[in-house]
């Protein structure tokens, strides 16, 4: 038998590739594709308010309802969640930044039930000390042309009483007035009674001598 004939015989004798291996690769590729698509879908859902209300139903339902409520008492600025919820480009994570360590802690708290929840208000223990601060609210990309305290003061300088003129008080936390998931309160009226009627937006609260009132069409309604 010639050398060429022997090589031809060896090539003929080699086993054909197993179809099972090819089928396995196809299945693996399909699984990877499904995982990627599901992951993308999960990421998109995770960014939406419905995720918060569905996964963490008990503590988060009130917050999702606030976000989706629309204008409060005819004025969407009376609650920050409603104000931002009216913007189609905003979602919960636009303000509540998704940090892995915080999410793990929050997830474990939800699973174990170790969180402070007020059944009367349907809200968690207040975190207003974290949000909103001037530094957070004035960061670039949130309010066009208003990136500093001076910018903010100038933006409302034409009002009879300028609520953002903090020249005598230092920087005041935005959360003193602007409430995320509660009715906003015009903090200045606790000292400046002249601001009560001239500057308080409709639907906002004011506190005078320890009593809380809501502004309704220019009238004070005791709460």
Structure commentary:
- The chain is mainly α and 223 residues long.
- It has a domain at 21-125.
- Helices cover 43% and strands 8% of the residues.
- It is built from ten helices and five strands, in the order H-H-H-H-H-H-H-E-E-H-H-H-E-E-E.
- It has helices at residues 3-13, 19-46, 49-55, 57-67, 80-85, 92-95, 100-112, 134-137, 149-155, 195-198; strands at residues 117-118, 123-124, 205-208, 211-216, 219-222.
- Strands 3-4-5 form a three-stranded antiparallel sheet, with no helix packed on it. The protein has a two-stranded antiparallel sheet with strand order 1-2.
- Helix 3 (49-55) packs antiparallel against helix 4 (57-67).
- The longest helix has 28 residues, at 19-46.
- Residues 37-43 have low confidence and may be disordered.
Question: What is this structure's SSE topology?
Answer:
Layout (H helix, E strand, L loop, with lengths): L2 H11 L5 H28 L2 H7 L1 H11 L12 H6 L6 H4 L4 H13 L4 E2 L4 E2 L9 H4 L11 H7 L39 H4 L6 E4 L2 E6 L2 E4 L1
Antiparallel strand pairs: 1-2, 3-4, 4-5
């Amino acid at each position: 038998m010639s050398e060429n004939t022997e090589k031809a015989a060896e090539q003929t004798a080699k086993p054909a590739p197993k179809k099972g291996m090819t089928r396995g690769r196809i299945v693996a590729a399909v699984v990877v594709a499904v995982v990627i698509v599901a992951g993308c879908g999960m990421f998109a859902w995770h960014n939406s308010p419905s995720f918060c209300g569905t996964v963490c139903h008990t503590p988060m339902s009130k917050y999702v309802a606030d976000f989706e409520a629309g204008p409060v008492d005819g004025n969407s600025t009376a609650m920050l969640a409603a104000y931002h919820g009216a913007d189609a480009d905003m979602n919960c994570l636009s303000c509540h930044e998704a940090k892995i360590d915080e999410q793990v802690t929050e997830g474990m708290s939800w699973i174990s039930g170790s969180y402070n929840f007020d059944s009367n208000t349907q809200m968690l223990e207040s975190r207003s000390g974290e949000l909103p601060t001037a530094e957070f609210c004035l960061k670039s990309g949130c309010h066009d042309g208003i990136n500093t305290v001076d910018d903010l003061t100038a933006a409302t300088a034409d009002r009879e009483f300028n609520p953002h003129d903090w020249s005598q008080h230092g920087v005041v936390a935005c959360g003193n007035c602007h409430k995320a998931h509660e009715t906003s309160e015009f903090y200045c009226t606790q000292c400046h009674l002249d601001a009560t009627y001239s500057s308080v937006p409709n639907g906002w609260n004011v506190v005078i001598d320890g009593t809380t009132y809501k502004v309704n069409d220019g009238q004070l309604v005791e709460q």
